Amino acid sequence: MIHRHATVRTHQDASAAWLFFKRWLANPLSMASITPSAPSLSRLMAEQITRGPDEVVVEFGGGTGSVTRAILEAGVPADKLYTVERDPELADYLRRHYPGIHVLEGDVADIRAMLPDDLKGKVGTVLVCLPMILIPAEDQGRIVDAIFDIMPPGRAFYSYTYSARSPVKRRALSLKGRRVGFTIANIPPASVWRFWRE
Fold it and tell me: Which of the chain's ends, N or C, has fewer CB atoms near its CB within 10 Å?
């Protein structure tokens, strides 16, 4: 017997994969992969979250919601999740399929302007679901500076990569970083990195 919930989830996953592939065709460098993150990678990212009761989580690059779903399933309330997505079609998809979350449409480097003023300094964790390794060092710097401006001192952000090396230029950006997880079940296999400033 096939449950209706499983059928709906399968249909949603198929439509998400098709939309993701279409957006990849339109702009391959901004997507990096032709498929959304696998559940194993999404869970690995969500497991890194640190959040106090009055803090929110920010996700960079919501896409079709693979990591978004894992964040919610990890127990983060929908109203405590802010997802940034630059692509209007993907942003609209997130609003329709993940009601209750805050979808911010724009460039992640502008997060300080997009996030409500009362939440600056109350971002527990930032999960970066972007191909950082393909982003020039200067633009990486703008993104990283914006991340640390919205988090309390001493916090870290997380980013995944399909490469064997760090997705972020640590030395140039005065960052400390280490690999905190790896999954072979993703296509392609992926690592999750933690980055912080002393």
Answer: N
Per-domain residue ranges for the chain?
4-196
Q: State the pTM of this model.
A: 0.85
Please list the residues that pair with 102 across neighbouring strands: 82
pLDDT value of residue 198: 85
Separation CA 82–CA 87 (nearest Å): 15
Taking the CA atoms of 30, 27, 101 and 68 in sequence, report the sign of the dihedral they define: negative
| Residues 6 or more apart whose Cβ sits within 8 Å of residue 175 | 144, 168, 195, 196, 197
CATH classification code of 4-196: 3.40.50.150
Place of tokens 């979250």: 49
Kindly report the backbone phi and psi dihedral angles of residue 123, in degrees, each rounded to the nearest multiple of 5, phi listed first: -100, 110
Region 73-97 average pLDDT: 97
How far is 159 from 99, CA to CA, in rounded Å?
25
